[in-house]
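Sample entry follows:

:::
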Amino acid sequence: MKTKILTLVAVCLLAADVSAIELSLSQCREMALQTDELLKVSRNKVVQAGLDRSIARTAYLPKLDGSVSALYMTPNSTMGDAMELQMRGVYMAGLSLVQPVYTGSKITTANKLARLGEEAAREQLDAAAMDVIAEAEKSYWMYVAVLSKIDMLNAYLTQLDSILSHTRSAYELGLTTQLNVSRVETRMAELSYRLRQAKSGGELCRLSLCRIIGADENEPIIPTETLDNELPAEKTFAGIDSRPELHLSMLNITAKKHDVKMVLSDFLPTLGVQLGWNAFGNMKMKSFVALEDGSLYPYTQSVSYKGLVGALSLSVPIFHWGEGVHKVKKAKVEVENASLEHERNKKLMELQARQAFSNCADGYELISSAQKAFSEAEQNLQLMKSQYEAGLMTLTDCLEAQSQWQTAYSNLIEAKTQFRINEIEYLRSVGLIRAK
């Protein structure tokens, strides 16, 4: 079947004189992971979470700030009857080093929350990557299925064409009626219409696949995988421990517990140490001094300062009308709600995974039944066709055998396709789809 599909697509490509993409399933996954916009956003969020964690770590370190300012004030300020303060061009400069000593565990808790945020961003990235891979694989197998059905309908048309030639020959010899010729021609026209529909559906699947892998919409795609590939061995239920959404839910509970500590820290004492160097100058004091003869002599005195300043700051909340108690209780309720939501989501994920596993297991049996029905229909068709050509069977029986063959073939394609989709959904439901 793979050779027939590739031959059909190759002929179309030669006619269109365009190049094609030979696409394996692994290539489809990789291209989808490289081009998906939402996945790029998730990667950026991991980077942002890492930066948030780096920012949170800086809170442990002392902060050094500098300042420079100039002041021009006019007119001079009067200080008493004979003294003026001149502040024209006064400058001030300083350096301040602040080191937190105790903040009620706020800094430690903030760093733990930042680390949890980074872990959560990575889990969200894994979940997004799983969604992209699942969508890409489903689209890939849907496209393969449509190509398989096109191949089947072409084979059906070839069989009908052979029967039409035989029926026309029999009509020319007077061995059958024009009605039988018309019946075959009508069946062929109906099949041609269905073939055009299948090709239209195949084009839509191709466009969808191009969008997912980031290929140009005009590029033809030749899948290198087929539905005849060996099926994977039957699986045992893996559980949902690897599912990113479960990890995210657990991280949310831990984050809510840290939020309680963060709220509590707002109502605990804080202690900090500050060391600074300050300088100011160009401030002048103007006044008069009395001489021995009783006259007044004006004089000006410059005022400046340079030196170190140290400070120890302790802040203790005393009375806030129970605000802290209420906020802590509220934060603890949030922890309880997160735990309840986690248990609910866990049960839903477990149910979803069990259903997906059941669908996957049923798929094996469905393929086996469809394969058996197709083999019987194929044998019956060969027998009916040879007997019809020998004049031992009616046209109606031969056409019915062909219809049964087409139905069985279509059912087999759908069973194999659905199994592939069920397998992807199961692996996604237990968190076993991972980007390599």
Helices lie at 2-16, 25-35, 37-57, 106-172, 178-213, 244-265, 323-389, 395-429. The first helix runs from residue 2 to 16.
